[in-house]
Design goal:
Number of strands: 18
CATH superfamily of the largest domain: Vaccinia Virus protein VP39
CATH class of the largest domain: Alpha Beta
Order of helices and strands: HEEHEHEHEEHEEEEEEEEEEEE
CATH architecture of the largest domain: 3-Layer(aba) Sandwich
Largest sheet: 9 strands, antiparallel
Strand order of the largest sheet: 13-12-11-10-18-17-16-15-14
Distance between the termini: 93 Å
Shape: elongated
Radius of gyration: 25 Å
Helix content: 10-25%
Number of helices: 5
């Protein structure tokens, strides 16, 4: 009986899971290998995720995630799957504990890893709050993500890759980029009675466009690329302009083109010209 009583007392003295000390809190300005821990305000987190049109179908990967607030917020308020990539051990523990407290641990993975070694193949949204130098090192990799992947950043931009959108919340800046499709080259556009060749030059999402029909140059206006989606206007043979909108699908451009005067919309397709 004495031994049993001693065992009961010893077990009672052990800390329960609720009594275990929490992970050390992150320190403002804590230096990691490629980042400094400074939290993003909740209002800006919400607006950045809204700007990226985040939904339950998205996978939000935060590189240098700190306490995991962005993927946790995306899971809790947008229904997305979240992945927090963070190198510092105490921040990883804090993020995991926070996901548990917020009731989204089943929808948030917290990975202790160097952000340069992270797998981005699942990402539909990539979140960043990292130094300008690291942003520049990541830029070539970000530009090769699946077209349509949204990239959001707190405070720091991607240099000569201009953002698609920009917001300001509580005197903080948020940026959005949508990874553009590789549409550069020459295309043979087929549309009822109006076939032409379209030449596209691209720098990130910025397009320069020209066209010719039957050996005659045709003016192209308003060429715009947003992920897989493309828009431009071309003059028909009768001199009226037609607004083309479409998407890159399976290596082809496909879409609709209504006339400027409200005439019926025509279906159009385009394939790459090998010449």
């Amino acid at each position: 009986m004495i031994r049993l009583a001693f065992l009961v007392l010893a077990l009672a003295a052990l800390p329960s899971s609720a009594q275990r000390p929490a992970a050390p809190a992150p320190t403002l300005g804590q230096v990691s290998k490629a980042s400094v821990s400074v939290p993003t305000p909740e209002r800006l987190v919400r607006r950045m995720l809204q700007m990226a049109d985040t939904t339950k179908d998205d996978v939000v990967i935060d590189l240098g995630a700190g306490d995991g607030r962005i993927p946790i917020y995306a899971a809790k308020h947008f229904g997305a799957l979240g992945i927090a990539v963070e190198l510092e051990e105490n921040l990883v523990k804090v993020a995991r504990e926070k996901a548990e407290r917020e009731g989204v641990a089943h929808r948030v993975r917290v990975i202790q890893q160097d952000l340069f070694e992270s797998d981005l193949s699942e990402a539909t949204v990539v979140a960043l709050y990292i130094s300008p130098g690291v942003m520049q090192r990541l830029k070539p990799r970000l530009a090769k993500l699946r077209p349509g992947t949204r990239i959001v950043s707190h405070s720091f931009d991607l240099g000569d890759w201009q953002p698609d959108e920009k917001i300001e919340v509580e005197e903080r800046i948020g940026y959005l980029w949508i990874v553009p499709a590789a549409v550069e080259g020459t295309w043979r556009v087929s549309i009822e009675g109006q076939d032409f060749r379209l030449r596209l030059a691209r720098r990130y999402q910025k397009l320069e466009a020209s066209a010719e029909r039957g050996g005659t140059k045709v003016q192209v206006l308003g060429a715009r690329l947003r992920g897989n989606a493309i828009e431009f206007s071309v003059f028909d043979r009768d001199g009226g302009s037609r607004n083309y909108s479409g998407r890159l699908e399976d290596g082809r451009l496909v879409g609709e083109a209504p006339g400027w005067d409200g005439t019926a919309s025509l279906r159009w397709t385009a394939v790459r010209d090998p010449d």
